[in-house]
Fold this sequence. Notes:
two-stranded antiparallel ribbon
Amino acid sequence: LDRGRAVKEMQSQSGARININTNAVPCNVDISGTAAQVNLAAQMINAYIASTCMEVITFEQGRVQVIVGKGGKNVKAVQLESGAYVRVDQAAIGVTVTIVGTKEQVGIAK
């Protein structure tokens, strides 16, 4: 899931300028342009969000090397094959893997 590419495509198709502040919780999305451009971009963003799903899987800490692979090789391969965004967070207790994408992408990544 290449969010940057998706935003660029939405900007190109709608003619609106889309700025996403991911530092805010929840993130802020600013859309600028004509009323028609803003309206179209908002519809596209809402459709994109509706088609996106997220799954969180937790593993034992000892499994981190197998999951990630040398230099992140396994995570990169899963992202490339599935198109989903995969984030691995390590804690003292275990490893949390977050997969974000369409339902199909998340299914492939799992």
